[in-house]
Amino acid sequence: MGFILLDSKKTVKSLNVKTNIPSSYKVEDPSVIDSAERIELIFSEDLDMSSVKDGIKLYKVKSDGKEEDMGEVIDFDENSPSIIHINKSEAISEGEEYKLSITDKVKSVSGSSLKQEFAIYFAVDYSFNLSSEGISDLDNQRTLIVCISDLHLGANDAYAELTSNCDALVNFLEHIRASPNVKELVIAGDLIDEWFIPMHLDTFNGKTQLDFTKAVASNNKPVFDAFNHIIKEGQVKVTYVPGNHDLLIDSEDIQSIMPGISETRDVRGLGVYTPSDFPELVIEHGHRYNFYCAPDYSNQTLTQTDTILPPGYFFTRMATSSVVQGRPKLDINFPPVQKNDLGEAQFLYFLYWNVWKGLISDFPVEEGLDKKAINTGIDGFNDCYAIADLLPYQNSEDDHIDVNLYNGIIEGWDERQSNNLVPVKIPTDEAVLKGAFASHLDNQSGVQFFKNPDSYKRIVIFGHSHEARVITSFNEKGEKQVYVNSGTWIDKNKCTMTFVVVIPPKSENSTPAYANLYQYTAEGDIKKLESQALTNIK
Fold first, then answer.
1. Residue 435, Cβ neighbours under 10 Å: how many?
2. Which residues, including other chains, have CB under 8 Å from residue 66's CB and lie 6 or more apart?
3. Shortest CA distance to 484 belongs to which of 499, 473, 469?
4. pLDDT at 90
5. Are residues 48 and 86 located together in one domain of the fold?
6. CA angle, corner 333, sides to 330 and 339, nearest 5?
7. Within this chain, do residues 213 and 266 fall inside the same structural domain, yes or no?
8. Residue where a domain stops, chosen among 64, 95, 124
9. How many CA atoms, within 13 angstroms, populate the side-chain half-sphere of residue 17?
10. Residues 264 and 329 placed together within one structural domain of the fold
């Protein structure tokens, strides 16, 4: 229940009031209420009902800033003379912003009044559904942009991360296809998982990446049939954006299993999508800003190829084996590495070693550090590698810290960011130390877009971290900005089967757009996790 506060420095409160809906006093940041929610004003004294008509007003806020008086919308119960209800059925529509004004004309039966006028702003959310009947207040308009990410579909269910949730995913996609309101479905990366494979296995089983891609589609046939049904029908635009676990999957691979799907790519392994009619929205996977998962170029001399496979790939292979082995409790004898006085890059390699040491300790494997057990055969890595090949080591003669794989990854970070079209460079020490944290990815939504003077984005959607959340902020103009992480659909996650829905203003006169986070259930129900309204979307 939200409390309406009066300024005690300016007035002595005689009559107080509170409301059952979240209270916002900013027209540019309305609180969001459900259409079925009852609006109630509870006063501290019984009211003189003859004063209420002129003292409480409801206005619709229009896109041009003007306010439309909604007329008489007040209901009250003679048995509860201190409580006022807003008659929503008569005056309030979904997808609109309203101003509720309460003035000093409101009197109690004893003659006391509110000595200070005030107003609260709220937006009415849509009664969201994916049924074939659609959302009634959208009149069968196709305006919804739906975003999912991190499906991690694998070629073998023995170790794939999405198996038991597949039926729910198929059901969800069928509802997307049937909905008369969905305009676009965006897959924001990690559709196919080329990384989460036990390290002793040959990724492609002696075949090619195209064969692997087709094997994933075959192993998840009902899911890809559902996707292709949407694409073939043509009512909903389906767009694929690369993630890190499928950063090597090229257009030929994708089109072979999802013919006609729209793709967005900028450099190899990366893509960023903005709908043509919603330029304030940007969607990408998010690995572009991650030291361990962004396309990396430091092994090209070693492999004599244009490899872009980042170190996160090798960690994931190791971690998969650890999970399959039950994350055994092992005492690992790490060769010691100490800080030296050989410059900043050496200090950063020391930090890099500490990160790897922590990851290896958290996901130990029975093969140990030195066994050549990581069977690759991917992107120019044609040998078997040991975990020790990834772990920095120290030369006993001169204290210099070296590493076999990804030698130069520290010195090349700035150039790597330039190659990967990162708008705002991330300092190397920050990238190394914080790259493994979801909070760092969340922060990059602001660094790269909201605080970037060359960007005008108001809604940013990332995946990658598997941690669905909504974070709001405001720009220098006082305009609200919303970051949403779309989460994941893998079986084992704290919160899974999540998706984002962006709804533009429903008409030229309507103020709010919505960025909403939902969760799908195995029973086909939809749970709203959070809703945010943004105003003045161009």
1. 20
2. none
3. 469
4. 67
5. yes
6. 130
7. yes
8. 124
9. 32
10. no
| Distance between CA atoms of residues 21 and 234, nearest Å | 41
Contacts of 424 (CB under 8 A, 6+ apart): 447, 448, 451, 452
CATH number of the domain that residue 171 is part of: 3.60.21
Numbers of helices and strands, H then E, in the chain: 12, 26
- Which residues have CB under 8 Å from 371's CB, separation 6+? 386
Residue 477 and residue 369 share a domain? no
Angle of the 311-324 helix axis to the 344-362 helix axis, nearest 10: 20
> What pLDDT sits at residue 286?
98
Whether residue 222 is found in the same domain as residue 248: yes
Q: Determine the Cα–Cα distance for residues 431 and 426; give it in Å rounded to an integer.
A: 6
Predicted pLDDT at 242: 98
Cα separation, 207 vs 377, in Å, equals 10
Q: How far apart are CA 144 and CA 142, in angstroms?
A: 6
How far is residue 30 from each of residues 5, 96, 102, measured CA to CA in Å?
17, 10, 17
Instruction: Specify the residue for token string 């000093």.
Output: 104
Which DSSP state fits 388?
A: G
Which domain covers residue 227, as residue numbers?
A: 141-291+420-534
164 lies in a domain? yes
Helix (H, G, I), strand (E, B) or coil at 99: strand
Q: How far apart are CA 529 and CA 2, in angstroms?
A: 20
For helices 209-219 and 221-233, angle between their N-to-C axes, nearest 10 degrees: 90
Q: Which residues contact 201 (CB under 8 A, 6 or more apart)?
A: 375
Residue 130 lies in a domain: no
- Phi, psi of 390, rounded to the nearest 5 degrees: -90, -20
Q: Under the phi-then-psi rule, with left for phi > 0, alpha for psi from -120 to 50, and beta for the rest, what region is 260? A: left
Question: Integer distance in angstroms from the first to the last C-alpha of the chain?
Answer: 33
Residues of the chain with pLDDT under 50: 1-13
Are 158 and 262 part of one and the same domain? yes
Q: What sign has the CA pseudo-torsion 489, 495, 498, 504?
A: negative
- Identify the residue whose tokens are 């439309």: 68
Within-domain flag for 360:
yes
Contact 369, 388 (CB under 8 A): yes
99, 195: one domain: no
The verdict on 432 and 521 lying in the same domain is yes
Q: For residue 413, tell me if it sits in a domain.
A: no
CA–CA separation, 391 vs 534, rounded Å? 46
For strand 393-394 and strand 74-77, is the pairing parallel, antiparallel, or unpaired?
Answer: unpaired
Domains held by the chain: number:
3
The encoded tokens of residue 223 equal 């899911």
